[in-house]
């Protein structure tokens, strides 16, 4: 008898609930990005450390670049983006490194770094 009352109460509660109207779908607004030239995509970000601050005094600047980029592409990208004359360019591949925190183990990503030497008297304002 007690079980019968419990089941009846649940059925009544379900009957009393009104049906919810279907959610209205709204149109998604499409955001257009400004087009970026191919050269600007090569330079990912300036690499800012204490050592790069010292290099900046010697007219050398450091950038993280795409792993597929070569010296001529990087040189064109820096000259086009910052309107300066590149005299020298060195590229360094920084390999991925194993990192560990307790028992969990992972990898720190590797990247490609470019050290750009500019013509005397020219500067790049990074930060």
Which terms would index this structure?
alpha+beta; four-stranded antiparallel sheet; 31% helix; elongated
List the helices and strands and how they pair.
Blueprint lengths: L1 H15 L21 H5 E4 L3 H8 L2 E6 L5 H12 L3 E9 L2 E5 L2 E5 L2 E8 L9
Antiparallel strand pairs: 1-2, 2-6, 3-6, 4-5
Textual characterization of the structure:
By secondary structure, the protein is α+β, with helices and mostly antiparallel strands. The chain has a domain at 35-118: Alpha-Beta Plaits (2-Layer Sandwich), CATH 3.30.70. It is built from four helices and six strands. It has helices at 2-16, 38-42, 50-57, 71-82, and strands spanning 43-46, 60-65, 86-94, 97-101, 104-108, 111-118. The strands form two sheets. It has a four-stranded antiparallel beta sheet, with helices on both faces. The longest helix has 15 residues, at 2-16. The protein is elongated and about 90 Å long. The chain starts with a helix and ends in a 9-residue tail after the last strand.
